[in-house]
Amino acid sequence: MRKKPLARDLFIGYFVVMLMSILVVSHTLGVIFKSLYLSNIRSDLVSRKSLVLLSLEEEKFAPKDHGGIEGYVKDLGHASSTRITWIDNTGTVQADSDADPATMENHHNRPEVKSALSGVPKFSLRYSRTLGEGMQYYAVPVRHDGNIIGALRVALPVTRLEYGPTATKKEFLLSVLIVALISGLVSFLTTRDVAGSLGRMRKAAQMFSSGDFKTRSPVSDTIEIGNLAEALNHMMDDLERQFVTISHQAKEQSAILESMNEGVMAIDNDDNVLIMNRAATRILDSDPDVSKGITLQEAVRNPIIQRFVEKVRVQSASLCEEFLIRGQDTRTVQATGTILRGNENSQLGVLLVLNDITEFRKLENVRRDFVANVSHELRTPITSIKGYSEALLSGDLGEDSKTRDFLEVIERQADRLGAIIEDLLSLSAIEQGNESTSISATSMRVCDIVSSATASCVEKAEANHTKMEVECDGDTVVTVNPRLMEQAVLNLLDNAIKYTPNGTVTVKVERLDNEVAIRVIDTGCGIDEEHLPRVFERFYRVDKARSRKLGGTGLGLSIVKHIASAHKGRVEAQSTPGVGSTFSIYIPDSVFTEMESETDNI
Amino acid sequence: MTTHLQREIDKLKKKILYMGAEAEEILRIAVEALVSRNVKLAREAIESDERLDHLEVEIEEDCLKILALHQPVATDLRYVIAVLKINNDLERIGDLAVNIAERVTYLADRPSFHMPLDLKGMARLTQLMVKRSLDAIVNTDSKLAREVRASDDEIDDINHGMYDVITEYITRNPDQVEPALHVLSATRHLERIADQATNIAEDVIYLVEGDIVRHQHETYSTNNVENDK
Q1: Would the pTM count as exceeding 0.90?
Q2: What CATH code would you report for A260-356?
Q3: Which strand (E) or helix (H) includes residue A247?
Q4: A438-588 is classed in which CATH architecture?
Q5: What number is the ipTM of this complex?
Q6: Does A46 contact chain B (CB < 8 Å)?
């Protein structure tokens, strides 16, 4: 819609109203004046007729006395400024005050004359062709001895007022012009104030919206406009307050975000970057100008992160993954992606939290290397201690049984220390293998693994009077590293036999939905529930004294757990004290393809 | 209609940028594998290239779809054409990076072979060129693109220098001919990658200015760079 100035609307209104009222008033007045004027003239004519008639009768005018009457009529007419016509009963004009009767046509047809000749006086208002102007006529019959001998007609000119618009056109136009001028002036004057204050309010609003929050609109003294201005100012106050609050909050939030050590990025559904804090730019090695509104692809030139965001979006779930970000230097980054939810749970975008764990990983590696190195370094002296104590024991010690006892203690403890070191070494090796996900795997029948593990335990079981049973259907195949898996089963068996003297140990292989379970079930003393969650921890012992007596290193179950997780599997322990325990290894199907593996680095 | 086209072009832009990032990453992995003779990384690069190949086909189809359905004109048309060409160049970069990675599998078996030349420096320079040509795409910066174009000479010079170094090395160590040749071919691949980066830069100039600067005399482009400055 096109906008119009207020003055124009007012002007048109004023103009129409004024014009209409002038027209109505002038028309009414015209009608009134006209009737007044006419009745005036008519009464005038009646009295003049009486006078003329009187004087004519005094003269005793005779029908044949032309010249005398004519002159008399002329004089009379001039004297009274009245047109007087004397018409005989045939309609012929005998005398006229303003014209030569000879040139005048028969007046029998004139309405007033016709009526007068038939005996009735009559007024008639019409245009005189003889004189060329509008006349009010009045004709009366003249009687002589009771007979109508003719008609006397008196007439007065009427003003142009009667005769229509041609006369008043100019005045009409003039009045329209005047009306237009006046209404223009009035509308300008009335709107000047209103438009002025409205304009000032608009200006104030514009300045406010362009960021000058201190602007206020001047308050006009017109009630309505003043109120409006006050309302506007109120609104500006509120807005300013809200804006200050909001910008304060935004500043706080961005300060928090900026000073965070974790990288935070928010990406909407169209891949536009909403937030990217300083830590994120540091971790991702890119420094884009986010304020301009750029896409993720422009901001982060790293396909891994882009794929991760897409994955979170598609799966519509929280994900946590670890990446190597290669830039100036390679960083290990742990990324957590969450869906940003809006109202009604709608998906707004993806929130990415990035954690630079390079240092953490480095330290972890250092620790692991340290354990591995220390174990390795300890191996040599232990071997010597063992070797020399063995040599002494096998030699001649004489009668000194104390020395023999001491040496035996040394040998036993050296054995134990050696076992612990071996376990630590294999633990760190498994950890390393786990880390690089490069353990070599082959498809094997589970039964083969289980039977070779049981075979190595037969002696021990017999010594401990433990019965061993194997339940295996023979066709179950898993893709595992056979050496590691055998060690895991062996560790479980070893434990079970140790704690089940005179009992039964059963190894059971079960095929589940998408994994294979190897269970080692014993009928030993069992483990209290409180210990169950911790039995797979390193050096965790349920019964310290007994465990040491039985010669455990405290690392056996921990190794089992690590072997399982190196195969992307898991372990589980169930137990009822006094009845027995069940330790299970679950191996998922087809985690490893046959060829994925590399050199066995364990 | 127009907004629909705009949406398609935005989508195309995101895809080509993603592809650029992917190509850059493959190159990074391949170079790292080459420098550290890490077979595992090399294999990762070779596997990643498959993704790049898929992406190339996808982007080409998208471009053809836009051309057929929307008949873009002026800037839009130039954009689609430039993307079509850049798409090609990026795919080539991926292939060349794979070639480099394949050299690694050979060189890893020869740990005794001592690298006779500054492969790292050349690789870094090449990577920088690829990075800057991609920067030029992201920011549609024709000035940067011209700079990339000018720096191709440097890589060419280094590559020529490599020939001399390798020739000398071979004459002195005739038993190491094979690994030396492998290294030489890796440098040639790097040089080709730099060429592709130059092509991308030229596509960007075409995209921004509508000016086809390919096959124009080198001095012309260097002059232009100076003029721009």
Answers
A1: no
A2: 3.30.450.20
A3: helix A223-259
A4: 2-Layer Sandwich (3.30)
A5: 0.82
A6: no
